[in-house]
UniProtKB/TrEMBL annotation:
This is Kinesin motor domain-containing protein. Its main location: cytoplasm. It is found in: Cytoplasm, Cytoskeleton. InterPro entries: Kinesin-like_fam, Kinesin_motor_dom, Kinesin_motor_dom_sf, P-loop_NTPase. SUPFAM superfamilies: P-loop containing nucleoside triphosphate hydrolases. Pfam families: Kinesin. Keywords: ATP-binding, Cytoplasm, Cytoskeleton, Motor protein, Nucleotide-binding. One of its GO terms (cellular component) is microtubule associated complex. ATP binds at residues 85-92. Belongs to the TRAFAC class myosin-kinesin ATPase superfamily. Kinesin family. GO terms for molecular function: ATP binding; microtubule binding; microtubule motor activity. Residues 7-175 form the Kinesin motor domain.
Amino acid sequence: MAAEAAVVRVAVRVRPLLPREALRGHRPCLRSDAATGEVELGRRRFRFAAVLPEAAGQAAVYRACVQPLLRAFFRGFNATVFAYGQTGSGKTYTIGEASDEQGIIPRAMAETFRLIDENDLIDYTVRVSYLEVYKEEFRDLLQVDTASKDIQIREDDKGNVGMCACAQATFLPML
């Protein structure tokens, strides 16, 4: 499915048991099928745009979930990547930079700047905000002393939705 063909695509990454969980006798609670995009939990089945099995590395997650959005973004489409899950489910590992494998944010930023460098016909300015939503409160990860109550979701006259009172890091092209 093309990135722009659906308004929202949901992908599931199955986290393997941690060594300490296996030592305590924990067992996997679901079955997944990457080919069909299905996850089975008890007697219930759920279908997703993508299911990434336990063995899927960071590069596979990026290729399946983020790279198509980034390419669509450079063709003029809006794109958002949102990591959701309970504490300990692997969100930080997936988006961040672990010592062994880069997550989706460093990969997306590297590819963004590579694509910009390849296009000499357009001038780009890149602005980045980095937010965490935890227990229904916003946290600005670029300006950690910003109070959650100061960060608000707003819609402008053109229907564009954005966050107010968030820090932005601006990257200008090198001349």
